[in-house]
Design a protein that fits this description.
Radius of gyration: 19 Å
Oligomer: single chain
Order of helices and strands: EEEEEHEEHEHEEHEHEHEHEEHH
Shape: globular
CATH class of the largest domain: Alpha Beta
Number of domains: 2
Structural class: alpha/beta
Length: 244
């Protein structure tokens, strides 16, 4: 279904691009307080506002509504901000070539666990003592599966659940992206109980994807806006605000 159009006169036509805020995805989407009321902030919100600033004909709507990723992917939406590339998703959505966020994947362990990891082989050798926790329906699960020989538990739907499972010794590692994982540990109040291993295990890039039914002109405008923001250095500056 094409994006909805709102006409306020020929000179101010504005396309409304339907989207949503992804639950458990900080710093892409973060719960904040704005003007004394609960709101959604984060790097994806900043990027969407930046797109609107350079392309006034585009207006994102729905970005203040929280939904799990599986619900967002099921639609109906016109754009989804900050997702990994997978073959399955590429069949359903069009990827904008310019990545909007670069991420590292780190491993969290219990603070009293003196394990050190320099490669995935170190974890494979642990067998059932090397269970890696990840989140349900996240594309990182496909990456971990393709590496082969790893024990992965992706049943949890939030970082807090995985951090609690880690403390309960229902997994040895929790694999999650940075920026994001340090904030999740802090927000859970577990800084003294969980530590991050220094080794970057995977690097990846996140993209904005568009519905294949989105109006061609709207898709062109969003692509051009993201290209301009990347060329201006705006995407890098926005990303640096959330580094930790």
């Amino acid at each position: 279904m094409a994006s909805l159009l709102f006409f306020a006169g020929p000179a101010s036509a504005q396309s409304l691009i339907r989207t949503a805020a992804q639950e458990a995805s900080a710093p892409k989407f973060i719960a904040i307080v704005q003007d004394g009321k609960p709101a959604v902030g984060g790097i994806c919100i900043d990027i969407m506002r930046a797109i609107e600033a350079v392309e006034p004909g585009i207006k994102f709507v729905g970005d203040q509504k929280w939904l799990p990723l599986v619900r967002i992917m099921a639609g109906p939406v016109d754009a989804i901000c900050g997702v990994l590339h997978t073959k399955e998703r590429a069949l359903l959505y069009d990827y904008i070539d310019t990545p909007i966020i670069s991420v590292n994947y780190l491993l969290a362990v219990r603070a009293d666990d003196d394990i050190q990891v320099s490669s995935w082989d170190d974890i494979r050798k642990l067998g059932k003592d090397g269970i890696i926790l990840s989140m349900h329906n996240y594309a990182i699960n496909e990456r971990l599966k393709n590496l082969g020989g790893l024990q992965v538990d992706s049943s949890a739907v939030s970082s807090r659940s995985n951090l609690n499972k880690l403390l309960a010794r229902r997994g040895r590692f929790y694999c999650h992206r940075s920026p994001g994982i340090a904030a999740e540990i802090r927000q859970a109040g577990l800084e003294g109980q969980i530590r991050l291993l220094p080794k970057v295990m995977l690097k990846d890039e996140l993209y904005m994807i568009l519905s294949k039914t989105l109006a061609v002109e709207d898709a062109k405008k969003i692509r051009a806006a993201i290209t301009l923001l990347e060329r201006q250095g705006t995407l890098t500056k926005l990303f640096e605000k959330y580094q930790e």
